Amino acid sequence: MENSTGCKHRSLLLAELARAQHLALQLVAHRDQHSPIESFKSLASNIVSSIDKLIHIAGSSTSEAKQQLAFPNTVPEDPLRSANKDASAGNFDSVFQRNCNNLSKNRKTLPKKKIQVKVGSGGVAAALDDGYSWRKYGNKNILGSKHSRSYYRCRDRNTKSCFATKQVQRSDEDPRAFDVIYQGTHTCCRGLPVPTTASISAQERRQNQPDRRLQNDQRVQQPNKDLLMDFQTGMDLDAHESSLSFRLGSVTAKATMPESVNGYSSQPSKPDNCCFGRSPSASELIDISGSPNQLCFSEAGLEPLASDSYVSDSLTPPNSAVDADITLLEFDTQFGEFSVSCSNLFYTM
DNA sequence: CCGATTTGACCGAG
DNA sequence: CTCGGTCAAATCGG
Fold first, then answer.
1. Which of A164, A175, A171, A61 has the alpha carbon at shortest distance from A113?
2. Quick check: A150 CB within 7 A of strand C?
């Protein structure tokens, strides 16, 4: 239940979000009109200020909400991806250059996506299997926690420079639950995940699937990029109603953020926000979190960046006022409905 | 032998 | 100084 303070916070937040959106759109317009760099900088500065305000508003509610507001339910952008985009953009911003230079140093401060998985009938392995291939690189006893935390990084870290990492720790409250913290997005396009299954340590894989080579062969799947490319423009983000509408093929849909997002309360067991529509009886789950799949504000509203344009375009200042990562498309093959999980809604300058 | 995990050491942030 | 995150040598197992 939301109290009056919560309502007030929400109103403030939404108003400030609307302002930030307006500024962002102005920024885009300035780009196209080839306005002087000073006005561009001024707008950028205002947007930064607006975001700062947003963080403070959220922060006055809870400190956790503060982080949630800055990077709501997010699988954060991979630092390497930033570096690549930076490089391809040629000149850009020193902030991203620093990200590139201080990859490991900044990782700690990167936004995280925390989820909680429960061990079901499939066992620990199935509960923790997210379809990606991880290599354990550390284990640590955490102060105040009964269970140690395991550190994993993507197996393609060296071969494909995929810097995605995750931490797995058994919950103190519920021994059947695991807290999983993801950092960075996969650039390896490996393992396309059926969300109901998921990631396990190599040790756990061995325990359950003795033939590792077979496992390795099976895990290489390609993301459904065709669907991503079919994602059409015509989106509209309504900051006042916290909704996102868009079309996919002939289907028009509207997503409304749940209370947990609007009220900035934390619900680790329900990491996906922006979901909508009825629960499909026959659904096809497509996780595209490993793909470049950002939405980008433009004059036309909120629209997706095509995979191919992602690297070169999405971090160039004029084109990237507001981004959102889609991590999950849920398509109901029976009813033609689908839902989108926006793991990220953030500003890039 | 090779690849993966374990584990103590190290480093940086707070 | 403490603690979380990472490194890398040692160890394990197929």
1. A164
2. no
